[in-house]
């Protein structure tokens, strides 16, 4: 019964999405849109409540281990710990798509509830567009991947969840990432509405900005958390693999980052109108392309749960409809968007255009690298594209972008002089130069790119704080702090990546109990290997004694886990986080003579990679807070006037 | 010019769309073909796995007659499945050499005692280096080496009954 209730909720949500589209469109064309708008707002809210209900019901089915539901039987097991029963609801294709549409509906409801600044017609059209997107994805769930399908007869127990996913990371990574991915739908709907209503200007940009920021913050957290999850769970010691699915999350982030900067130009200076609309369309399009790439199984990846051509074709049809439709609308209407304010070659605007262009180029490279296997296949060649391609192409451009990030905030709007800019950049440039010479010599004149990255990171760190120079700190607006913190986060993260590339040390050896290994400044002793058990796994656990020089020794306990349902081995890395880096240990299998494979890394300052990601998100949060508080203050001031 | 630029995103999207449709209609096969096919054998220096016969060394590779090079392991189930077909090929007069991947002497002896012994030489590839340099992505795989020591064909996965004539034809062509 409960599963049927979930399906019913889904159908009701669909019905309300249709109503949202029709009424929203009617309101947008009506003479007095303000009269119909409250109704459309309520419909969007109800649609989200039904979607949320369906999603909660699915979680309930997983929690109660209702094996008569096909999805639960295929992906859950009664012995699984509670956390993974709950999170298991989205650790599969159908459940994750349901989460996707739920976030879509909730984002729409958020706009309906909180958006007060947008012109009534544009808001009605935005909600209509949001409803239109939802309809397609509800249809996808109903016709191609019903999460509530029954299984008759019900099996005694389920097949269990992929052990790689049985990690607290599963509880947080997909929902945050989806909030970011799908949150960008709001920007998409805004852009579509703006094109339809021919309403593009600073007011529109100011209304759109917080929504883009919010989605971008979640996306940043999602990517950072996902990177750290892969880092410790997969046991390969790497933090980014250029896997198609990682690329799928990076592409919307790149587009959203560009959008975040261009929307500022539109809001502050009324420039870059068409370009901002384009980016808003592209950002969510990249989210949909990412969803398609992952969910259709067209590209092989660890994230692809199932390969099903029907689903692929269905998603592809939706993609064609929404992206193609929005781009066609852009082509047809953008000509009527009048050109905004112009600016000089050396100015804040120009720096932001450069930022946008470089981000777009990186986006293009990642897109080409991700899709090229499909191109090659069309020409009858099988190949895969890995890290070397992206490192040779995207990384140098990213370093250009970093240099621009240092300079941009130190430029004035509209017009500035190159000489003045150089003056303001003296200290960062000096730091970069000295650091480059120093580290290049230290690293034995190898890997100039990584050394340059590290030097640029230090320069950017100095330059990112510079906008606070000579300001009254207490009266500096929050968004400025947001920018400073986010740019500093980029410097911190980049420093971590470069340090990891330059200074990490690795040892792989087969050792007997009692043997010693050294990695970097550490002496690692394999004290013992003992069996241990957890809630639904058993493991061989190594007790490693780790000591730096004559310092206090500490223990690390990497495991080789065996899960019974489904039968799978995973290796659980043990990581010690120290102030200056991480010791990363992985236990392999034993050989015939009783020696154990041990894989050890010393990764100096690797932690900075994710700390930087956190700072970037924090910067976004500060900026968002500043914008929202400012909007409230303005609204209150307006009321007092009236 | 500006008009064209406005429609460029849609054009690019349609191009990608067409590609993806093509990708969906003709799903790629998931078999990884070696890039070494058509090239001479890479430099291999594998010590003998068993005391009674030599290992694999490119320098002393017997030329003049095409041979098979079988990548296998005693711990690999499909290798057991293809053993009868290898014996059939041997009975047809084919010379078969082998690379044993991540294996030990007693395990290989036991494997050959149980499943038959078609091999003229067996190289010990404990570290999987030779396997990688051949461009082989798993076990079992079988390479057809022509009379000049050039890799002319690769069979991925176990050799089934119906693959035997194909391999014999490939060997005939490689003379």
Folded structure, characterized:
The complex is a heterodimer of chains A (about 650) and B (about 180). With about 650 residues, chain A is an alpha+beta fold. Chain A has 18 helices and ten strands. In chain A, the strands form two sheets. In chain A, strands 2, 3, 4, 5, 6 and 7 form a six-stranded antiparallel sheet that branches. In chain A, a hairpin with a 5-residue loop joins β9 and β10. In chain A, α2 crosses α4, α9 runs antiparallel to α10 and α17 runs antiparallel to α18. Chain A is globular, with a radius of gyration of 26 Å. The N and C termini of chain A lie far apart (about 55 Å). About 0% of the residues of chain A have low confidence. Chain B is of the alpha/beta class and about 180 residues long. Helices cover about 40% and strands about 20% of the residues of chain B. Chain B has five helices and seven strands; from the N terminus they run αβββαβαβαββα. A five-stranded mixed sheet of chain B has the order 5-4-3-6-7. Chain B has a two-stranded antiparallel ribbon with strand order 1-2. In chain B, β3, α2 and β4 form a beta-alpha-beta unit. Chain B is elongated. The interface between A and B is medium-sized, with 32 and 23 residues.
């Amino acid at each position: 019964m409960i599963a049927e209730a979930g399906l019913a909720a889904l159908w009701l949500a669909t019905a309300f999405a249709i109503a949202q589209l029709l009424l929203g469109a009617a309101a947008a064309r009506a003479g007095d849109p303000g009269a119909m708008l409250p109704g459309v707002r309520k419909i969007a809210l109800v649609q989200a409540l039904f979607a949320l209900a369906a999603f909660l019901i699915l979680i309930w089915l997983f929690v109660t281990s209702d094996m008569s539901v096909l999805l639960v039987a295929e992906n859950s097991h009664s012995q699984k710990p509670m956390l993974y029963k709950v999170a298991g609801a989205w650790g599969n294709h159908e459940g994750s798509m349901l989460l996707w549409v739920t976030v879509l509906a909730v984002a729409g409801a958020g706009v309906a509830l909180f958006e007060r600044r947008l012109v009534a017609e544009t808001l009605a059209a935005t909600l209509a567009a949001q409803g239109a997107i939802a309809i397609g994805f509800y249809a996808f769930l109903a016709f191609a991947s019903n999460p509530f399908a029954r299984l008759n007869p019900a099996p005694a127990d389920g097949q269990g969840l992929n052990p790689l996913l049985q990690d607290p990371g599963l509880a947080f990574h997909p929902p945050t990432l989806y909030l970011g991915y799908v949150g960008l739908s709001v920007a998409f709907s805004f852009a579509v509405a703006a094109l339809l209503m021919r309403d593009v200007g600073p007011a529109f940009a100011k209304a759109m900005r917080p929504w883009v920021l919010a989605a971008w913050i979640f996306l940043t957290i999602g990517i950072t958390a996902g990177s750290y999850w892969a880092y410790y769970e997969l046991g390969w010691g790497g933090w980014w693999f250029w896997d198609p699915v990682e690329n799928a999350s990076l592409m919307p982030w790149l587009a959203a980052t560009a959008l975040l900067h261009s929307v500022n130009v539109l809001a502050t200076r009324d420039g870059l109108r068409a370009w901002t609309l384009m980016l808003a369309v592209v950002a969510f399009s990249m989210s949909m392309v990412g969803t398609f790439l992952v969910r259709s199984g067209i590209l092989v990846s660890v994230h692809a749960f199932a390969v099903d051509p029907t689903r692929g074709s269905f998603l592809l049809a939706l993609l064609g409809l929404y992206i193609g439709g929005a781009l066609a609308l852009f082509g047809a209407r953008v000509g009527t968007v009048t050109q905004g304010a112009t600016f000089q070659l050396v100015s804040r605007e120009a720096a932001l255009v450069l930022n946008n262009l470089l981000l777009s180029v990186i986006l293009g490279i990642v897109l080409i690298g991700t899709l090229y296997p499909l191109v090659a296949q069309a020409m009858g060649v099988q190949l895969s594209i890995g890290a070397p391609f992206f490192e040779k192409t995207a990384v140098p451009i990213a370093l250009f972008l970093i240099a621009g990030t240092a300079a941009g905030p130190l430029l004035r709007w509209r017009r500035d002089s190159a000489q003045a800019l150089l003056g303001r950049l003296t200290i960062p440039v000096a730091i970069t130069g000295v650091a480059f010479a120093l580290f290049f010599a230290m690293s034995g004149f190898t890997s100039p790119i990584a050394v340059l990255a590290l030097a640029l990171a230090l320069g950017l760190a100095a330059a990112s704080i510079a906008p606070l120079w000579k300001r009254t700190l207490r009266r500096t607006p929050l968004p400025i702090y947001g920018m400073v913190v986010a740019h500093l986060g980029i410097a911190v993260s980049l420093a971590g990546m470069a340090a990891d590339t330059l200074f990490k040390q690795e040892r792989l050896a087969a050792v007997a109990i009692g043997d010693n290994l050294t990695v970097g400044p550490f002496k690692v002793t394999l004290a013992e290997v003992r069996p241990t058990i957890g809630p639904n796994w058993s493991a061989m656990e190594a007790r490693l004694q780790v000591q730096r020089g004559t310092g206090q020794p500490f223990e690390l306990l990497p495991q080789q886990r065996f899960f019974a349902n489904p039968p799978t081995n995973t290796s659980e890395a043990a990581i010690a986080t120290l102030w200056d880096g991480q010791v990363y240990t992985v236990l392999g299998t034993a050989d015939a003579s009783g020696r154990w494979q041990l894989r050890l890394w010393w990764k100096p300052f690797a932690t900075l990679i994710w700390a930087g990601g956190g700072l970037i998100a924090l910067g976004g949060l500060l900026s968002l807070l500043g914008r929202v508080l400012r909007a409230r203050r303005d609204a209150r001031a307006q009321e007092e006037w009236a | 010019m500006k008009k064209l630029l406005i429609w460029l995103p849609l054009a690019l999207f349609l191009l990608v769309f067409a590609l993806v449709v093509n990708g969906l209609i003709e799903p790629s096969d998931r078999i990884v073909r070696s890039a070494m096919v058509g090239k001479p054998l890479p430099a291999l220096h594998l010590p003998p796995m068993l005391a009674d016969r030599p290992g694999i060394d490119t320098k002393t590779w017997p030329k003049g007659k095409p041979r098979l090079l079988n990548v296998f392991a005693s711990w690999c189930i499909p290798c057991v499945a293809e053993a009868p077909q290898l014996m059939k090929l041997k009975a047809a007069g084919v010379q078969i050499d082998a690379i044993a991947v991540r294996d030990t002497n007693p395990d290989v002896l036991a494997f050959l005692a149980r499943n038959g012994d078609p091999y003229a030489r067996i190289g010990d590839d404990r570290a999987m280096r030779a396997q990688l340099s051949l461009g082989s992505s798993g076990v079992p795989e079988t390479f057809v080496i022509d009379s000049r020591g050039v890799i002319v064909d690769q069979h991925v996965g176990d050799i089934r009954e119906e693959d035997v004539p194909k391999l014999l034809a490939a060997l005939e062509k490689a003379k």
